[in-house]
């Protein structure tokens, strides 16, 4: 922390947030290694890996949302972080879905049995709840000026445009992303991860205008 004292306060806060996200990635990576070595039952193995992957993704998403609000006047920086962490998640969370839509799509295609799919969906739900409380506890420490315990996770309506525009935007973005997942299956893994990260960044950029100057994950 002493190395950050010479930086401007807003830059210090950004570095701390990035450090927290990278720490989560490293801890989850260590836990994945331990799980792969110690867990030999397929069901338990699938549950734990899906739990860890979703936990990493949710924690980073909460923190990225904070950063996007602090740097709302600089969307290029926000998009850079989206691409970087999409790439990090793609490289570190191989073999997991971290998304209920991905699980259900594989179940419908016959790639997952209903039992395995149900286990993965349960792991995602439990992990999302855990990440919410863990992130809240972390913010209560006040490590940055926008980490405050009063910050609410309460559900609220994020749609600030016409419902028809919101539905069309969401439908088009979801269709493009899941279509890309299907068509990129034959692409080499390293290249596929870069392509998906670039696509996610493009979709976030495309959604920036609905409504302008706001951004929701």
TrEMBL record:
UniProt entry tagged with the keyword Ribonucleoprotein: no
Annotated membrane topology: Multi-pass membrane protein
Keyword field contains Transmembrane: yes
InterPro entries linked to this entry: AQP11/12_channel, Aquaporin-like, Aquaporin_11
UniProt subcellular location: Membrane
Membrane-spanning intervals of the chain: 16-35, 47-65, 77-98, 191-210
Protein keywords: Membrane, Transmembrane, Transmembrane helix
Name of this chain's protein: Aquaporin-11
Gene this chain is encoded by: AQP11
């Amino acid at each position: 922390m002493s190395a950050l004292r010479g930086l401007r306060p807003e830059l210090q806060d950004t570095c701390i947030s990035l450090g927290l996200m990278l720490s989560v990635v490293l801890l989850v990576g260590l836990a994945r290694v331990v799980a792969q070595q110690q867990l030999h039952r397929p069901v338990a193995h699938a549950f734990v890996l899906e739990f860890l992957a979703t936990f990493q993704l949710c924690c980073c998403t909460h923190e990225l949302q904070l950063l996007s609000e602090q740097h709302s006047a600089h969307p290029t920086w926000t998009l850079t972080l989206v691409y970087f962490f999409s790439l990090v998640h793609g490289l570190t969370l191989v073999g997991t879905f971290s998304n209920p839509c991905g699980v259900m799509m594989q179940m419908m295609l016959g790639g997952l049995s209903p039992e395995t799919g149900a286990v993965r969906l349960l792991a995602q739900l439990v992990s999302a709840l855990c990440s919410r409380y863990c992130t809240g506890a972390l913010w209560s420490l006040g490590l940055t000026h926008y980490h405050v315990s009063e910050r609410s996770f309460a559900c609220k309506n994020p749609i600030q445009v016409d419902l028809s525009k919101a539905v069309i935007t969401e439908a088009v973005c979801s269709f493009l992303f899941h279509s890309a997942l299907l068509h990129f299956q034959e692409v080499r893994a390293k290249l596929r991860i870069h392509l998906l990260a670039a696509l996610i960044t493009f979709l976030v950029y495309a959604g920036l205008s609905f409504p302008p100057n706001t951004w929701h994950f």
